[in-house]
Design a protein that fits this description.
5-stranded mixed beta sheet
């Protein structure tokens, strides 16, 4: 039996015992991870995913792919050149189990991609969360009703009436 799973924007056809190289995951070597985005397993085809299906894999190692070199050359008047290299970070996995049903209730943690830190902000990202003392202070302010009110120093002052040109001529 085989399954087709989706991770890192790619699809993989896997069987039990296969070794995969996927985009870097937030897991350490020796951890077990579970993929829940299953497009097909056995004879069941999802629309778009198979509900309750999962693939369990063990993390072997985190590796880097071969270096890819990009060369940019601008011809004619500019005559500039630039060479850049890139090594994609990958996670090496060994597929241990294919679950046709019951993957929702398993105790294996879900496979989550690792962020490099310079990408867009993701909902639920802990770097943007308040620490415990700030949360307690905000809860106390909300409970006492101070959260949305302005203090006496920052309260809005009454605006001074502007004199228009017509009003100034009548005063003079």
């Amino acid at each position: 039996m085989f399954a087709v799973l989706k991770t890192g924007g790619k699809q993989y056809r896997v069987q039990s015992g296969d070794v995969l190289r996927v985009e870097k995951l937030a897991a350490e070597p020796g951890d077990k991870v579970q993929f829940n985005d299953i497009l097909m397993i056995g004879g069941t085809i999802g629309a778009p995913l198979v509900a309750g299906a999962g693939v369990v894999a063990e993390v072997i190692d985190t590796i880097k792919a071969d270096k890819v070199i990009t060369f940019h050359k601008r011809r004619r008047k500019h005559s500039s050149q630039r060479t850049r290299g890139h090594r994609q970070q990958l996670t090496l996995l060994r597929v241990t189990d294919l679950l046709e049903s019951g993957a929702d209730s398993s105790d294996v943690k879900a496979a989550v991609g690792a962020r490099s830190g310079n990408g867009p902000r993701v909902k639920g990202d802990d770097r943007y969360a308040m620490n415990k003392s700030d949360q307690a202070e905000m809860a106390a302010r909300v409970a006492t009703g101070e959260a949305g009110e302005k203090s006496a120093e920052t309260a809005e002052k009454p605006k001074r009436a502007r004199k228009t040109a017509a009003a100034e001529s009548t005063e003079a």
